[in-house]
């Protein structure tokens, strides 16, 4: 004999209205299951991870990257940056010698730093 397994379906598929999921307990019995509640995280995005201090990803001016290349790299890897915003950041990098292109938790900062470095941008150490 085959044992009934628990399967989770969106509530709409289980005949329920609204948000959430329902667990089908075999043979048509449906028990509502609430999605886990959102908990505040102390080490979430923008918190900087351990210690709670956000980390800055800073691109430095150099003599080997073009404005277009910097803008394209920023648009490819930094959330919320398109080519036009990338060009504005490239101009700021050129005029100021550097610009913070993203600020937030350490793990994502490290990822963006590595990606930009891999595209040939000159990067300041994460801080």
Task: Please characterize this protein's 3D structure.
By secondary structure, the chain is an alpha+beta fold. It folds into two domains: 1-35, no CATH class; 55-123, Ribosomal Protein L30, Chain: A, CATH 3.30.1390. The protein has helices at residues 67-77, 83-96, 106-118; strands at 7-10, 21-24, 30-33, 55-60, 98-104, 122-123. Strands 1-2-3 form a three-stranded antiparallel β-sheet, with no helix packed on it.
Supply database-style keywords.
21% strand; single chain; Ribosomal Protein L30, Chain: A; three-stranded antiparallel sheet; alpha+beta; 2 domains; 127 residues
Indicate the overall shape.
globular
CATH class descriptor name of the largest domain: Alpha Beta
Largest pleated sheet? 3 strands, antiparallel
Q: Helix/strand-derived class?
A: alpha+beta
Number of helices: 3
* Pattern of helices and strands: EEEEHHEHE
In round numbers, the mean pLDDT is 77
Distance between the termini: 61 Å
Helix content: 25-40%
Q: In what range is the share of β-strand residues?
A: 15-25%
Q: Superfamily at the CATH H level of the largest domain?
A: Ribosomal protein L7/L12, C-terminal domain/Adaptor protein ClpS
Number of strands: 6
Q: Within the largest sheet, what's the order of strands?
A: 1-2-3
Question: How many structural units, i.e. domains?
Answer: 2
The gyration radius over C-alpha positions equals 23 Å
């Amino acid at each position: 004999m085959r044992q009934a397994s628990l399967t989770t379906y969106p509530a709409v598929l289980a005949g329920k209205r609204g948000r959430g999921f329902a667990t089908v307990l075999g043979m048509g019995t449906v028990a509502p299951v609430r999605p886990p509640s959102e908990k505040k995280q102390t080490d979430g995005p923008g918190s900087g991870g351990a210690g709670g201090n956000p980390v800055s990803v800073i691109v430095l001016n150099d003599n080997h990257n073009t404005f277009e290349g910097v803008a394209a790299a920023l648009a490819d890897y930094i959330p919320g940056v398109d080519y036009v915003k990338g060009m504005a950041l490239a101009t700021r990098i050129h005029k100021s010698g550097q610009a913070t292109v993203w600020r937030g938790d350490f793990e994502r900062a490290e990822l963006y730093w590595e990606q930009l470095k891999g595209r040939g941008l000159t990067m300041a150490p994460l801080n």
